[in-house]
Input
Amino acid sequence: MKQTLYIFALIVMFSGIYSSCKENTLDALRDDEITALDKYVKDKKLTDFKDASGIYFKDSIVGTGDSIITSGYKLKLNFKITLLDGTVVFTTEDKYGHNYEEYTFYVDANDATINQAYVQQIAGLHNGLKKMRVGGRAFMVIPSELAFKAVDNSSIGVPRFSTLLVKVYVKSGLSPYKQQQE
Output
């Protein structure tokens, strides 16, 4: 009977240690991300480019489209999304850096099938695109809270609390009104 109690006490103790360490690990990962993000933004002189949503947004080329992109737009994009260390996680480029096919992106789509695509799930990308016009190119720094947060997407190359760097070109786009006319 005593052995059973000792084993039970050990199990409870180790599970408590494991769960408390697990939370601290997540906190440490988040703190590491914030430190790395702050350093990157400071080193690249992007502090003045933070917008109200929390992303850092910098136009490279202002688009010539009729209006600012809004919810409901259907866009054709070329993009390259990397981690802070330069690891490419999503891109429309081939291994030579050429873009031959655009990616269809729906701004603020509510369709479950569309939202299954990982790129569609990046809230910060939606926020940044809504600051652009068709034909524009931009660079965005998207903190994890506007990307995949604490979700472990290591299977697709995105660890927990990963800041994303996005270079995007809005090649074409259709407003909700123009989509209805098709």
In short: The mean pLDDT is 88. Residues 48-181 form a domain with the Chitinase A; domain 3 fold (CATH 3.10.50.40). Residues 2-43 form the longest helix (42 residues).
